[in-house]
Each structure stands twice: as structure tokens, then as C-alpha cells.
Design brief:
Strand content: 15-25%
Helix content: 40-55%
Number of domains: 1
Distance between the termini: 17 Å
CATH class: Alpha Beta
Order of helices and strands: EHEHEHEHEH
Length: 127
């Protein structure tokens, strides 16, 4: 069985390390991008099964990156989970307006992250 591929887009090495630690234990393949622009490029090349996307990043923020991923025919249907410290309702709404599927606030709760990731990456036979 092929590993499901997750693209982590965050400018914080600490956040990337924590997400990677959680997800690699579950045997997901991990691809990393350090800002929104790189995230959009990596999404097009790597065709991930899921994207975890920070909001506040250099070059291109998460909202713009989310919209760009949605505009590309090859990546428009990839589930996107915004993962951010921005918990204010205006930011949550902006995330959904940009096209995200879920909005998770930092600090990341391991079980919440795994539950949401699994809900999008469950084997087709289970759905």
C-alpha cells in the first residue's frame, strides 16, 4: 500500500519538526515547504494527499497560498488544513473563504491533528 503524502507548509522549523514527528509515526510520507510560495510550487509538483498550511509566513501568506492551490486544476481537490496561532473568528472565516477544509489552532494538539488528518486520508474502503 502506498503511503499517503502530506505537505507541511510553515516557516517555523520547530512547528515543522513537531508536525513531522507526529505524522511520520503514523507512516505518512512528508514533504516540506518553508513559505506559502514554495508550498504552492511543491503542491503542484508533489501532488500531496493533504496540505497542512500555516497562515503567517514570508513571501505569501497561507490564505493566498490556499487560494493558489485551489486555483490549480491538479491540486484543487486536495484537502487543506490551516494550522495557525490566529484563532480570531475573522481569521477562521478568512481561512474558509480562501478554501481550507479545516482550521486548527496552535499549539497543536497531537490527537486533534491525527484525528483530522485521518478523517481526510482514511482508506477509501472505510469511507
Amino acid at each position: 500500500m502506498l503511503k499517503k503524502k502530506i505537505l507541511l507548509v510553515d516557516d517555523s522549523p520547530t512547528v515543522i519538526m513537531w508536525q513531522r514527528l507526529i505524522l511520520e509515526q503514523e507512516r505518512y510520507a512528508i514533504v516540506i515547504a518553508k513559505d506559502g510560495q514554495e508550498g504552492v510550487e511543491r503542491a503542484r509538483v508533489e501532488r500531496p494527499d493533504l496540505v497542512l498550511l500555516d497562515v503567517i509566513m514570508p513571501r505569501m501568506d497561507g490564505f493566498a497560498a490556499c487560494r493558489a492551490i485551489r486555483e490549480c486544476p491538479e491540486t484543487r481537490d486536495v484537502p487543506i488544513l490551516m494550522v495557525t496561532t490566529r484563532s480570531e473568528m475573522i481569521n477562521v472565516l478568512a481561512g474558509y473563504d480562501a478554501g481550507c477544509n479545516e482550521y486548527i489552532t496552535k499549539p497543536i494538539d497531537r490527537l486533534e491533528l491525527l484525528m483530522k488528518v485521518r478523517s481526510y486520508l482514511a482508506p477509501e474502503s472505510v469511507q
